[in-house]
């Protein structure tokens, strides 16, 4: 009998999503009756707005939604997405260059599948969302980490990108606002990076899932708005999950040049065909319907942002820059490492996260999930009372 692995090398090399792993551990402890407060999942605690849910209910009464539809998405939804893209990203794109996907995560996956050949390199600014490197490697690409710490506001520079570029570099990943840091590139920074990418003939994959969750009067300028010449070499990925509190509806999209979108449509026709029609009808209502409930959620996130940053900066050894977007606080915890806490001396952010979970019953995601050690990510997309209680527990623990 030959010694053949039961699992392919490609799939065997995939790391489990660290954010989902920490969240699952927290939920398991909660199920055991432990009062665990979790900052792990990037998921709004608000219910999906009623007018969106009503649209889904109405869709259930129409038998046409029980049948296969076009793999690329319902025409009405693709039109709504094109209008949103023109409005928020400054790209007047035809609906034919839009593909509706099963969440933004599938859009990210398909973007790299259609762009990369074996050995192609992708510049990945770090800290990065945990799924980016895995999606790149599943497309036989090579993720190249370019790190910016708290001293840079977690934003990479053109000089750093140029130092990391090689003859194998094909794609730059650009994410603003960022998960996990909440960092938002200024219009000038976005323009400089876009012009550098255009001058070097690079493709851009721009994840704009948090573009509407910004604060302090900041606007997340799309890289294609900053540098219109990039529209022929850019894929935008986005979705309704974060802005509209629709994480479980699994509705995202990708936008790009016509030939790229045609290839992605071919891929999706074999991969999964059309996205759930009820979710698509709900997404039409989200994009075209009243936006006042969305603004109410954004204002709540803003209030929580100010609270959590202030409280985290009171924790001994913590340094938390103020995020301008998304709903995450990314804390430099290097000042809290290397000292004894209740008989344990954490040397890494992973060890510190484990200590905080076991001793304070608070779950945060360690920096190892997003790049270098030395950081913790806190999602403030949870209720105000729990948000404050969790940080107070950490303050007490680390003050000992």
Automatic annotation (TrEMBL):
It comes from the Bacteria. GO terms for molecular function: L-aspartate:2-oxoglutarate aminotransferase activity; pyridoxal phosphate binding. The keyword Nucleotide-binding does not apply. The keyword Transferase applies. Its cofactor is pyridoxal 5'-phosphate. It holds the Pfam family Aminotran_1_2. Its EC number is 2.6.1.1. PANTHER family: ASPARTATE AMINOTRANSFERASE. This is Aspartate aminotransferase.
